[in-house]
Design a protein that fits this description.
Length: 162
């Protein structure tokens, strides 16, 4: 998908849209976060992100079904969080949202996007590979996990021709 450079929202169909989130969406984000993340962000962290970062929400009708949190530093973007509600996972919504976020990063001047993902999160790792990310490192003990800490795979996508 190709998005316009000045987009602040995008309607994908009558029922699905992507738009910037605000503090009014923090409770809905927190509800998703608490179910899908092993160590969920707090409401305070989510609130801080919608105030200072690029936070996009994926909506079906008016129901938030996923979101992403990205920061831009000079010409690099970092995808800090991407979550899809449990009932909507493995249906292609993560790919739709990630595609949008990548186009947003490119339009904002990023030449590359970085992210960390749990080494055990095979579904996310596969999605990121399909979307052009490649592993560039391993951060041992990065994530809290039981009974031991878990490694994060550091991945990068470089935009060609930028």
């Amino acid at each position: 998908m190709v998005w316009s450079r000045d987009v602040t929202s995008r309607t994908l169909s009558e029922q699905v849209s992507i738009r910037l989130l605000t503090e009014a969406h923090v409770m809905a984000m927190s509800a998703i976060e608490s179910i899908v993340q092993q160590v969920p962000w707090t409401e305070g962290q989510l609130r801080d992100s919608v105030v200072s970062d690029r936070v996009w929400g994926l909506f079906q009708a008016d129901v938030l079904i996923g979101y992403s949190v990205m920061i831009l530093v000079v010409d690099e973007a970092q995808l800090l969080n991407m979550s899809i509600a449990k009932n909507y996972q493995t249906q292609g919504w993560g790919r739709v949202l990630l595609d949008f976020v990548l186009n947003d990063a490119l339009a904002a001047g990023a030449t590359a996007v970085f992210l960390e993902v749990r080494e055990s999160n095979r579904i996310a790792l596969q999605l990121y590979r399909v979307m052009g990310f490649a592993p560039v490192g391993l951060r041992k003990g990065y994530y809290a996990a039981q009974p031991e800490r878990e490694a994060a795979v550091l991945m990068r996508k470089v935009f060609k021709g930028v």
